[in-house]
Design a protein that fits this description.
4 strands, four-stranded antiparallel β-sheet
């Protein structure tokens, strides 16, 4: 009886552990693109502070992926928003183009 309890708890532990780590891998990859977008935005607005970030959309084609983020920035006493769009090769991850456009 003790062996069955041990085996069931071991099996449950492996299943629960696998379920916990699977979604995190995808979240880390998404976060890295967002971090890259913040870095590119900070190049254009070096004195600003990022208050809020939001992924607007992404589009994946055969060989190109495009992701767009909206950042609310604060520079001094002024708050404003910018859209940062990253275009990259889907298979290699090589960045093709980055656009940082202020919200009208």
């Amino acid at each position: 009886m003790k062996k069955w309890i041990f085996l069931l708890s071991l099996l449950y532990g492996i299943t629960a552990t696998h379920g916990l780590f699977t979604p995190e891998v995808h979240a880390v990859s998404q976060k890295s693109w967002e971090d890259y977008a913040v870095k590119e935005t900070k190049k254009r607005y070096p004195l600003s502070q990022v208050l809020f970030s939001q992924k607007i959309w992404d589009q994946e084609k055969k060989d190109i992926t495009v992701k767009q983020y909206r950042f609310t920035l604060r520079e001094g006493m002024e708050d404003f928003a910018v859209y940062t769009t990253i275009t990259f090769d889907s298979s290699t991850g090589e960045i093709k183009k980055v656009q940082v456009i202020p919200e009208a």
